[in-house]
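hi! just following up on the protien thing from before. the input was this:
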Amino acid sequence: MPGVSLVSTLHDSKGWCIDPLREHAALFDRLYERRIVAVTTGTAPAVVEALQETGWLIVSPRSKVGVEYISDSRRRVLRAGLDSGSAFMHLVDMDRVLHWADHYPEELGEVTKQIPSHKFLIIGRTERAFRTHPRNQTETEALANRVFSLILGRDVDITAASRGVSRDAAETILNGSRGSFFDSDSEWPALLLRAGVETGYAEAEGLEWETRLKRQEMTLPDGRRVDVKEYYESNPESWVYRTMLAHRIAKAALETYRGARGS
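and the predicted 3d structure came back as:
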């Protein structure tokens, strides 16, 4: 069976990923033939050193910092995967794959083995894993998922941003993808649906909420420290932000499927 490369994106100015990178390097060595990451200009030098020490190839130049550049970073690391000669790629954000490796390593291995069986594999969350996320995320992402599910004709979770990608699928994506922010969550599978590319679907427990890997608490304007999940669920700005992202993802799904997006 063809090997799979792990391709990922990372912004880490604090160093939260250094210990998990080292802890799971041996696991990643067993599961993937190579590892490639697009890091931001704001990522700490110590993090870059840890990536290099643990076998990651770093895409150059570094990505711009900001949520509006996420889809561009994903395109760049997908291109790097193609240029490396990878037959199949597992694209997943770094915080998610490190959490997955920490809590469900056997499942991560089983999902990785499924990737070469599909031209494109959407990897979503189980119902339990989905419900571990804050409500401002679940209630808004559910709407984006519903839009794409109606287009596809079956229930799928597209907003976990974990994908198995063949070379053919990657070329189709890179030829047609134009979105920013998290538009790629829906734009990519919609492009492939229009092109008739075979697409599979799998769900994973390991894609549960991963943010506690990076932070446990947030600071309120009055200086009080609160649990990070409580902060996201009670902060109106967090709901507005997630609503904006969900609207973009849903709109990208429909416009891309209808061929209404400009190049």
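The domain at 4-258 is CATH 3.90.550.10 (Spore Coat Polysaccharide Biosynthesis Protein SpsA; Chain A).
The longest helix spans residues 236-258.
cheers
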